[in-house]
Design goal:
It is a single chain. With 97 residues, the protein is an alpha+beta fold. The chain has one domain (3-93). It has helices at residues 3-15, 88-93, and strands at residues 20-28, 31-38, 41-44, 62-71, 81-86. The longest helix has 13 residues, at 3-15.
C-alpha cells in the first residue's frame, strides 16, 4: 500500500471517529514531515499543500514512518495519546479507534 493510499484510508476511517486525530510523521528528502488527519481531512504542519481537494497532501518522495492516534480535538497543552507510536499500516488495522 502506498503512502497516498494509506492517507486516504485513514481519512475515510477518521470520518467515523470525529473525536480522534491521526498524526503521521516521516521524512521528505532530509526534512521532517508531519501530517494531521481529523474528520476526514488532512493537513501538513510542516509543508505546503495544494488547494485542490482531490490532490494528494503527500509531496512526492514522502516516507511515512510513524503514526499516532490522539484524542481530538487537539489541545497542544494537554495532548492525549490513545495509541502508538506504530507504523501507519498498523494504525489502519488498529481495532481500538
Amino acid at each position: 500500500m502506498t503512502g497516498v493510499e494509506i492517507v486516504r484510508a485513514l481519512e475515510q476511517r477518521s470520518q467515523s471517529h470525529p473525536d480522534r486525530v491521526v498524526r503521521l510523521t516521516g521524512r521528505l528528502d532530509d526534512q521532517s514531515f508531519e501530517l494531521l488527519i481529523f474528520r476526514g481531512f488532512s493537513s501538513s504542519t510542516t509543508h505546503p499543500t495544494s488547494f485542490d481537494p482531490d490532490a494528494s497532501v503527500l509531496p512526492e518522495g514522502t516516507l511515512l514512518e510513524q503514526a499516532e492516534l490522539l484524542q481530538g480535538p487537539l489541545n497542544p497543552a494537554v495532548e492525549s495519546l490513545l495509541a502508538g507510536p506504530m507504523s501507519p499500516l498498523e494504525l489502519l488495522g488498529h481495532v481500538n479507534w
